[in-house]
Design goal:
The chain is of the alpha+beta class and about 525 residues long. Helix content is about 40%, strand content about 25%. Strands 3, 4, 5, 6, 11, 12, 13, 14, 15 and 16 form a 10-stranded mixed β-sheet that branches. Strands 1, 2, 7, 8, 9, 10, 17 and 18 form an 8-stranded mixed β-sheet that branches.
């Protein structure tokens, strides 16, 4: 649906049953859940879909190995339940988005014999908690087998390794897929639309005043209920509702660095079980590169946090301790920082000890807020939120939750070997076909058909993304800025910032033709994207 048609619908088809504010993992999950239940629902997002925290994760779908360790050592039932729920939801996500997710094997190198039984037992328990959703069976690796699986790992002093399995996914494209799936079911999705005030009638929240960030136009969207799903920024909307309300959200920063593929084999990740300050680090293959993360430090809540020199040095230092191949700053292809929204706990000693569970609350004026959680549990968070919305606002008739069984767009008729057909039919090189099949699933042929309009060339010779993907993102995937395409519809800016900068003019050229941008607008797009690429994504 064209953007203007979407905005016209947002203005005219009122009141809605629900207005969801926030287009990250939680908001996109909620809008799909609500639409699938037959509710009339709209979503607005100030920036792009998943522009904040939800596109800056470690790209893992997991129960949380670290949480399990804390659950066992501290006899902490909350952490235990969080792991068990996460492992169930991991299985649901891999089933419902097969094109955007995959199983990944991890090697944990061990340098002390005393660590072997403890780590092995913990990862076996991780398997057991997965139940029928288990992805594989953990097993002990000899020193030789560990080095064969992950040749870069430091050989000196290595005693053994543990192999275990977890899930991996494309977070930004998952958010877009959820939004598009919700749109198929009648939801109205509007990114780059900001809530400037809450609309109230008789002291109760009954909608929001919104502003189109592209044109400045303002209007009121009325709804029976408003859901605050703005992640780390949740307190802003809560204080818009009641200036005297106390903040309940704190945040920690998690940064990632991307290195060349020589730092990670294509089939295996590395889990470093304990750093100098007791954290867990991952090195994993992602988009043909090595993704390393993450940190966990208290952070200010800002829209585009930047990875600090100290955080980058922290990751490089710890990887260097476990690698014979020593990475330096010159090896870094890209960096990014994301904010984890945490439910504030005044008794917690540091942010790494806060339980990443979710909390749903209703204000006196009727603003429903969902905070906390993580990507893996997005669907369960959405289900709980819509359940409370239906009960709190008496939204009848509303069907039971169906998202446990809803495949997202691209996943319904996805074929894991579909890339072979793309190569045969359209003549794409193998890496291009593979990327199209995994990014778009059963919609890959739609992108391939667009490529026949002189858009079959690679955007950059070293990467598998083609020009037709830019047009597809603009026409069908809500992309309104060039950086929306380069950082989220395609992950190019997240794996190679220099390459993203090189292809930026061509991306703007394709979008300008589709959207009717003049020379002045093209200049603004170049300026905006350049700022994002060089300052912070």
């Amino acid at each position: 649906m064209k953007r203007q048609q979407t905005l016209d619908t947002l203005k005219q088809e009122q009141p809605f049953d629900l207005l969801v504010v926030g287009g990250g993992a939680t908001g996109c999950g909620i809008v799909l859940d609500a639409a699938a239940r037959g509710l009339k629902v709209a979503l607005v997002e100030k920036m792009d879909l998943a522009e904040g925290t939800s596109s800056r994760s470690t790209k893992l779908v997991h129960g949380g190995v670290r949480y399990l360790e804390k659950a066992v050592k501290g006899l902490n039932k909350a952490q235990y339940d969080l792991v068990k729920e996460g492992l169930h939801e991991r299985g649901v996500l891999l089933k419902n988005a097969p094109h955007l997710s995959n199983r990944i094997s991890f090697v944990t190198p061990l340098y002390k014999w005393l660590d072997v039984p403890m780590v092995f037992t913990g990862l076996k328990l991780y398997d057991i908690l997965s139940g029928k959703m288990r992805l594989g069976s953990s097993r002990l690796l000899s020193r030789k087998a560990t080095l064969e699986r992950f040749p870069m790992v430091k050989a000196e002093g290595l005693k053994a390794g543990i192999l275990y399995y977890d899930g991996q996914f494309n977070d930004a494209r998952m958010a877009v897929a959820l939004a598009r799936t919700a749109e198929q079911r009648g939801a109205v999705i509007a990114n780059h639309v900001e809530v400037t005030d809450l609309h109230k009638e008789n002291g109760k929240v009954s909608g929001a005043v919104v502003r189109d960030c592209l044109t400045g136009e303002q209007w009121t969207v009325r709804a029976k209920g408003v859901i605050n799903a703005t992640g780390p920024f949740g307190d802003r909307l809560r204080q818009m509702d009641d200036p005297a309300t106390k903040p309940i959200i704190t945040a920690s920063s998690g940064i990632h660095i991307v290195l060349d593929k020589r730092f990670s084999p294509p089939e295996n990740g590395l889990m470093i079980p304990k750093t100098e300050d007791g954290r867990v680090l991952f090195v994993l293959p992602w988009q043909g590169h090595a993704l390393i993360g993450t940190t966990d430090d208290p952070a200010k809540i800002t829209e585009h946090p930047k990875a600090s020199d100290e955080e980058i040095d922290y990751l490089l230092r710890h990887v260097g301790k476990y690698f014979d191949l020593q990475p330096t700053r010159d090896d870094i292809k890209a960096t990014w920082s994301g904010l984890r929204p945490l439910v504030a706990d005044p008794d917690a000693a540091d942010t790494s000890n806060l339980v990443r569970d979710h909390v749903i609350s209703m204000s006196d004026a009727g603003l429903l807020t969902i905070v906390g959680g993580k990507w893996t549990s997005y669907r369960r968070m959405a289900e709980d939120t819509v359940d409370q919305a239906v009960a709190g606002w008496n939204l009848a008739p509303a069907n039971p939750c169906e998202t446990n069984h809803i495949s997202v767009i691209g996943g319904v008729n996805y074929k894991s070997q579909g890339d072979q057909q793309l190569t045969t039919k359209y003549g794409f090189e193998k890496d291009v076909s593979y990327n199209l099949n995994r990014a778009y699933g059963d919609q890959a042929e739609q992108v391939a058909e667009l490529s026949q309009k002189n858009l079959a060339e690679r955007l950059h010779p070293k990467h598998p993304f083609i020009e037709a993907e830019v047009l597809f993102a603009t026409r069908y995937e809500f992309a309104a800025h060039a950086i929306d395409v380069l950082a989220r519809r395609l992950p190019l800016a997240l794996i190679d910032k220099a390459a993203a900068a090189q292809v930026l003019p061509r991306v703007i050229e394709i979008m300008a033709k589709e959207l009717g941008w003049d020379q002045q607008q093209c200049g603004k797009e170049l300026e905006l994207a350049t700022e994002r690429l060089h300052v912070a994504l």
